[in-house]
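Entry:
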Amino acid sequence: MPEFAERFETETGITLQVISVSSGQGDARVAAEKDNPQADVAISGSNPADTNPDLYRPFEGAVDVSNVDERWIRGDYSIPTILNSVIFATNTEVLDGRDAPTSWEDLGDPQWKGEIAIADPTQSGSAFNALAAVYAAGGWPLVEKFASNVVISQSSLGPIQALSNGEAAIGIGAENSVYQVADGTDIVAAYPTDGIVVNVGMFYLLANSNNEEAANAFMEWMLSTDTQTWMEAEHKGMRSTTTNSTSPSGMPALSTLNIIDVPADVLEDKAAFLDEWTEILTSVG
């Protein structure tokens, strides 16, 4: 987001400070600062307004979302701004002649034990969506096989860094993170054939923040045609949520991918789902 902040400041004269944390860390910070908010806008992939709506402002009347594709709008608080398919990539050298996986089911193969890097699904929205896709593809039996193979990174970018450094054969992450290193030869992006969850970059207006007008202006700027067009052109892997966007160059169109939703039973009790995951991960470790 630093490039966004710099461009926003240049175009509007409004100063913007960006603090980079995971979805889980960000949600916790917003909750901890509820009596004296230190931020005005939050980004999260964890649907925090579902459990703590009082911490956020509804976007209606504050931000015009009429140009946003309605399929991405979920509720009254989250403003869909950036799309990132959750995929994986492979390191050709580390594969060392082995066939590259093409599905989540493939990642349950014992040959990948210790060679799959993923962020912590309890902290990272992208990692959570990847885990949900694994579960959708094969239920708990596949999740258990998958858990036996993974190495947990402590940051969202950790899996891609491990992949790039040759520490992992497979790195799981959001599309824009993958394309920071994927060149189509040494590091190759892969779109799982058995289902892809789209990580919708949801922005939230914080309740009782100190700069509500500036926050509204930032969100209007983020959703503008100029900003969305610039974003897709300059940040490969980021896709627009707006109705007038086109498929970014060098990436498959969303319409060609097997896009799935997070399973309903996962959404119904996310905490229980993550508790089961943690128990499985501990048992196989």
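The first strand starts at residue 41 and ends at 44.
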